[in-house]
Amino acid sequence: MEKGVFLGELPCQKGAYNQNRIYFLYDERFIPAKTKLLTFTAYEFRSAEDGSIRMKRFESGTWIRFYDPDWREFTAFLKERGMGDCGRYFRYGLTDQNDPVLAEIRAKTECDGKHPYSANERPSSWPKYEEPLDPLFAGETGIRTWMEKFLP
User: Fold this and answer.
1) With contact defined as beta carbons under 8 Å apart, do 64 and 94 qualify?
2) Pairing label, strands 5-14, 19-27
3) What pLDDT is recorded for position 141?
4) Which of 144, 129, 149, 115 has its CA nearest to residue 45?
5) N or C: the chain end with fewer CB closer than 10 Å?
6) pLDDT exceeds cutoff 80 at 139
7) Are residues 131 and 141 in contact, defined by beta-carbon separation less than 8 angstroms?
8) What is the mean pLDDT of residues 46-73?
9) Quick check: 90 and 76 in contact, CB under 8 A?
């Protein structure tokens, strides 16, 4: 990552077609050394009665399939079934402070046998979604940021 800061990776869960890892930062610039578990913003997708897609936000530390050190990117690809024709895909970058930031969201909720992808592919033909604006989480002016800063 940088001098004295290392990225650690631990296999967490492995299924028939999904696998997840935990990532953490190990910072030996401090005595004793510090560790920080990386957490990633993600979304559940549900089809509503009106045909629209509802997204529900959550945070996870056990979400990531792999890390690409050349691009400094993490990828989460959760296939709903083995052929990879439906599921959720998330790509994350890192800030200068080594905090994960969501860069891309793709999801296909209908398992119809069309547009399958392997675990190593980016499902580029799947619908792309923007991260919903939630005032509780909106940057420096968000309520959550204010609460974390001023409330114990």
Assistant:
1) no
2) antiparallel
3) 46
4) 129
5) C
6) no
7) no
8) 86
9) yes
Residues present in the chain in total: 152
Is the separation of the CB atoms in 95 and 41 below 8 Å? no
Q: What are phi and psi of 84, to 5 degrees?
A: 75, 30
The answer to whether the CB of 37 falls within 8 A of the CB of 22 is yes
SS3 assignment for the chain:
CECCEEEEEEEEEECCCCEEEEEEEEECCCCCCEEEECCEEEEEEEECCCCCEEEEEEEECCCECEEECCCCEEEEEEECCCCCCCEEEEEEEECCCCCEEEEEEEEECCCCCCCCCCCCCCCCCCCEECCCCCCCCCHHHCHHHHHHHHCC
Q: Tell me, what's the pLDDT at 140?
A: 47
117's tokens: 């992808």
Q: Is the pLDDT of residue 107 over 50?
A: yes
User: Per-residue confidence at 33, pLDDT binned at 50, 70, 90?
Assistant: very high
pTM of the model: 0.81
Q: What is the pLDDT of residue 27?
A: 94
As a whole number, mean pLDDT of residues 126-146 equals: 66
Residue in the block written with tokens 């991260």? 131
